[in-house]
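Next comes the chain:
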Amino acid sequence: MDTRIKIIAQARELFNERGVASITMRQIAQSLGISLGNLTYHFQKREDLILALYEDLVEQMNRMMESFAAHAGLLDLFFSVSRQSMQLFYNHRFFLIDLVHILRTYPDIRKRYQQLQVIREAQFTALFIQLQQKGWMRGAELPSEYEHLYQRMQILGDYWISAAATLYPEMNKELVDHYHRILIEMIYPYFTQHGRQQFSLMIRNPAD
């Protein structure tokens, strides 16, 4: 395996286990059995390594969004993308657990994160519009109602792992399903009767 890939994988594992602030570049090098100089050849400082991990996370998310872009079933799209996104976040859970610290400490990552939020909001806004056009979601009844729905989803998406880590010290992948159910139920009040029927079918027969 390429040394750079090994470094990224090991750093993710250590950050997930102990948090960003607790892991030094020297510790990462020692855990890999390489010299600090070898590590800094690939990543000069910890920020570079965290940025590489963030870019890896975003790249996987982008591929996921693109793969479902032409999906015929919009509810399938929402369920699948949201569930796989939360699994991906679990695999990179250090980033969400230490989100505020990372964004305060590393301005470049904060800038990229903020830019990504604009893109994601546009993507989900388009999805909500499509669901309304198909008669699965009702029209807005309050000013900025769907904008606020996305913001609530985004808050839950960014901080569910922090909540889970606080409530369940022994985190496991089963928590992904628990919090995904909380997320998808957030949109239930916005469905029409037809949409609720489709939603119920999805709940009973979730896609992998």
